[in-house]
Specification:
With 143 residues, the chain is an alpha+beta fold. It has helices at 17-21, 42-48, 67-78, 88-94, 128-134, 136-139; strands spanning 32-37, 61-64, 82-87, 98-99, 104-107, 116-119, 125-127.
């Protein structure tokens, strides 16, 4: 699981697998929850945030505890994708976020773009809004 919404950011597939491994220091820290999505969904996420979609356990936004787990889901289901993360504290304090197994959770609430970070092409995390400003044409942002 680990990401049942669309988005675009740093590609997470075999080519960028090294970017994920550099994030091992976060593994198991619980500081963030990770969501993988398709590149084509990023514009929708930028415009509307992460919105609950149908998933195995019903409508929700699904997250994984590690970037590797979210990346594996993206690779298996779409052949690659973009990796997003949201602070665990934000999810717990502002949504109905709950774990449905030891390493995966979901919320039925929309996650606003201002709290979403994306793994960029350099393998660094940055706010989705900053990423979108750099690639404003593909996001339909007017300057």
């Amino acid at each position: 699981m680990g990401g049942r919404s669309s988005s675009s950011g740093g590609n997470l597939n075999r080519r960028n697998r090294k970017s994920v491994t550099r994030l091992d220091r976060l593994k198991g820290s619980g500081e963030y929850q990770y969501h993988a999505t398709t590149a084509s969904a990023l514009i929708g996420i930028y415009n509307n945030g992460l919105k609950p979609n149908r998933g195995e356990l019903g409508r929700g936004v699904y997250f994984s505890e590690t970037p590797e787990q979210a990346n594996d889901w993206a690779y298996e289901t779409t052949g690659g994708g973009k990796l997003l993360r949201v602070s665990t504290n934000y999810l717990r304090d502002n949504t109905d976020y709950d774990l449905y197994d030891e390493t995966q959770g979901m919320t039925t609430k929309r996650i606003p773009r201002k709290v979403i970070q994306i793994l960029n092409r350099s393998g660094e995390w940055e706010p989705l809004e900053d990423y979108a400003r750099r690639y404003y044409r593909s996001f339909g942002i007017r300057r």
